[in-house]
Structure prediction request, 175 residues.
Amino acid sequence: MIDKKERIINAASKIIENKGSSGLTVRTVAKKCKSHPHLIYNHFKNKNGLLSHVAQRLTNEMLTESLCFHRSNKDQLIHTVSVFLKKVSKTPHIIDFIFFNPEIGQILPKNSLSIADNLSQKINAVIADLSKEKKIKTQELSLRIWSTINGLAMLIKQGVLKYSPQLAENRLSYI
Prediction:
């Protein structure tokens, strides 16, 4: 059986998944938990404290799902982007909250790895590999990769493009 704090975090995650972070209030979380709002404050200092726990959990879940070992840096990046795009397709509000949210740096606890940080590390590793092989313009390639990732995410969110497991590999074939 899960404890009350976990139930609150689960309820908040579901609200964000269905309505986005703008739909999350202490009252809506309490209602979903069939509880009173003041009980939420027994576990979290304020709404931002709750958001911090939710963001950390959602981010960790995605980072765990994107783990892959014994692959090249390029294959790790493609796998991570594929997981990210799949999440955009299935849970766009969660991606808005943990990736496109300009306040995520303030919401996540200090020393936490964000999705953007994780992608940046993988992009930099690929670029380092490529720069050993041939002369490349690293900043240009980094911007091109980021543009591809963000563009695909936006096209999927808008319903212009459908997610497929091969999408990331096909669109990042230039690296």
Notes: The radius of gyration is 18 Å. DSSP finds ten helices and no strands in the chain.
